[in-house]
Amino acid sequence: MVYIALLRGINVGGKNKMDMKLLKKAFERVGMNSVVTYINSGNIIFTDNSQSRTKISHILEEAIHADFGLEIKVVVRSFDDFKKIMHSLPDSWTNDQQMKSDVLFLWDDVNDESVLDKLVIKPEFDTVKYVTGAILWSVDRKNVTKSGMMKLARSTIYQQMTVRNVNTTRKIYELMQVQAEEK
Questions:
Q1: Fewer CB under 10 Å: which end of the chain, C or N?
Q2: What φ, ψ does residue 9 adopt, rounded to 5°?
Q3: Taking CA 17 as the corner, what is the angle to CA 38 and CA 106, rounded to the nearest 5 degrees?
Q4: Residue 35 main-chain phi, psi, to 5 deg
């Protein structure tokens, strides 16, 4: 089965530095196959046919701790999970000079629509949707400073998610599709 591992908070502001080649080797060392990394922010596509998402997440967190000495949370989503998120992501959402659009991938223990109640959402500026596994959030760039998204990093729920912009999310999906077609 094809999976994506999304690491939270690596290679940001000089903290939690990880070389992607070494990270790939760590994944392979613990039995993950067809490992491909995408950009430096901790997006790793791989295959595994014998373990649950939860078990894989635990194995990867332990491998990262063993190889890098870092306590990094890892969100794991299967290709089918990711496909459902992508089908809910509006094609019109962009991450460019006009629009800021992100996918907030949720830890399993907060993966419920009630998570929206813990966010500051300003409906006059923000478009926010819950889909199993993630929150989709978009705002016009001219309104970013007025958006509830600006308060996200100060919220307690922020520690239970990892964020990717829609451009990165779409590219990850393309890479996962390639792996799924090769299986």
A1: C
A2: 75, 35
A3: 60
A4: -75, 125
What is the tens place of the pLDDT at every residue in 121-149? 999 999 999 999 999 999 999 999 999 98
CATH number of 2-80: 3.30.70.1280
Architecture of domain 88-165: 2-Layer Sandwich (3.30)
- The residue extents of the domains of the chain are 2-80, 88-165
Q: Which residues contact 4 (CB under 8 A, 6 or more apart)?
A: 43, 44, 45, 76, 77, 79, 82, 172, 176
CB 166 within 8 A of CB 129: no
Distances in Å between the Cα of 106 and the Cα atoms of 81, 110, 135, 149 are 12, 6, 8, 16
Taking a C-beta distance cutoff of 8 angstroms, is the pair 126, 138 a contact?
A: yes
pLDDT in tens, 75-89: 999 999 999 999 999
- Give yes or no for a contact between 42 and 18, defined as CB atoms under 8 angstroms apart: yes
Intrachain domains 2-80 and 88-165 with the same fold: yes
pTM of the model: 0.94
